[in-house]
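Blackboard transcription, Thursday session:
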Amino acid sequence: MSFESALPEQDLIKGCTLNDRRVQELLYKQYCSSMMVLCKSYAKNEEDAIEVLQDGFLKVFQQIDRYDARKSSIYTWMRTIMIRTAIDFLRRQNKKNVAIEWKEEHDPGIEAEALQRMSAQQILYMLQHLPATTRAVFNLYITEGYNHREIGELLKISEGTSKWHLSEARKYLINSLKAKERA
Amino acid sequence: MNKRHPYNNIIERKLEQLPGADAAHLWNDMHAILDKNMPQKKEKRRIVAWLFNDKGLLFLTTASIIAAMSSLFFLSTKENSTNSIKKIVTVSPDKFIEDEGEKISESSKENTRSANESDSKTNNNLAATAPLTSTFSHAIKNNLATKQSEKYISKNQLRQSIQATISNDKEHFHIAPFGLMTSHKDFSIATNYDKEKLSLNRQLKPVANKVKAIIRDNNKNGLYTGIISGVDLSSIHFHAARTGATKGLIIGYAFNKKWSIESGLFWDKKRVYDDGSYFKPPGYTATSGITIVAVNGKSRLYELPLNIKYTIISGKRSLFATTGLSSYFMRLENYDYEYLQNNQPGGHNYISYKNETKNWFSVVNFSIGYSQKLGDIGNIRIEPYLKLPVKNLGTGNMPIMSTGLNIGFTKPLR
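(Written on the board underneath:)
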């Protein structure tokens, strides 16, 4: 007898490819929570996060036949789709905004210990209070590990602008941490 | 990829601690979105859909079994009428012909005598009996020929027919002697009787040969083997059937044209769904606050059937029914179960067992089938079946019942 933590991916994918609601439900419920956390970190509030989540899952189900198990796990693939959906959502919200070139600024450091002392809700609160593009850059750079060139391509901004947003995010987080420390 | 900062992991881990979403509630919205953006193919026509749902499958299986039982009953009543002749011909066709010939000739003799006694003025018994015996021969030949063509020869029917012929001809026979003037009371009909018997034997010899051939055909026995493959629909008490498959080898021994015994080895793939009511793997105890709400099971197993086969209608196209027991030997069992924790979605767990259980004679098989002879190559057959458990099966201890359709090919080993 052996215990395994994951469902057989091939069965899930096959069922979803056939547009089988039962299998789609299984996949959805299996990854809903983790994807929701991801969406929350990109969205301003819970409603936006749910919208991104549902849009993302719709894309997952629509494009599942393109998924290649040899390249990545289903989780990684879905995560990529969710991030791109979040960026699309961000673009839709900021479509009237004109892209501005920002000069690169000094990258301020964040104390790891200070972050460690914060709760998950506090970190999420701080992230959600960042401006949308800044939040996206921060997430892509810090959480997903993209570099500024990649972020620039994704968000249709220059590398310099991406660096500026990251810097702004860090400044905000440092200030928030300091404020929390004082409190 | 960038050179990651030491606090990246901290943020990730912290965010993972956030409470999960209400997946069930969100799925309802997602379902609506999917229906709008990715509609499923148009539902199958109602009756077809109904036939393939749980109730429909139950109905089809029950209807098939009732039809088979009715056929058995109907054919058994028909068989009763043919049993008597079978008994005769099984013992000795020659004896049967001889006996019948003697009876006929005895009747002829008696009738002739009674006619002679009633009218002692007969001077030409031979002439008088000749048309009658000729009529008898003709009657027997006609009777046997007709019945042979139907492959059934009834002794009673034959006798009745002969007697009817005799009684009809009696009238002619009674009338005929009145017109004759000569009287030879002690005229012996012995010569006539011997000639009659010889004539009957000659006439019935080809019929006897045909009867012998039928007996040989009826006693057809021997080994046969074949392959089988089919679609399997398994469920727990006909609730939410899941599609699986079966394939395997069969071997059988035919005792005669009607009865056979069959066994073999099947490779089955079964899928089942349970709402948590029956799923009880060993060592599982319901933890407080945790409720299993859905189980999707997938098993790969060896099936060892032992069935009795009865051929209801035999011939080039035959109808048969089988019943017996199957043993299940589980090779691989995978169970994915979903649970609620304090009435909130708890998540999934996935359990896998290998070669864990052997369920000896744990399933009762019923099937009816249609078989078509393909010349000397063999037989092809289509066989809907129903498999009912006599005890709970597999590591999940679930009463898995199956229905489905097997298509097979068999070939005699001789």
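Lecturer's comment: Chain A touches chain B through 48 residues (CB under 8 Å).
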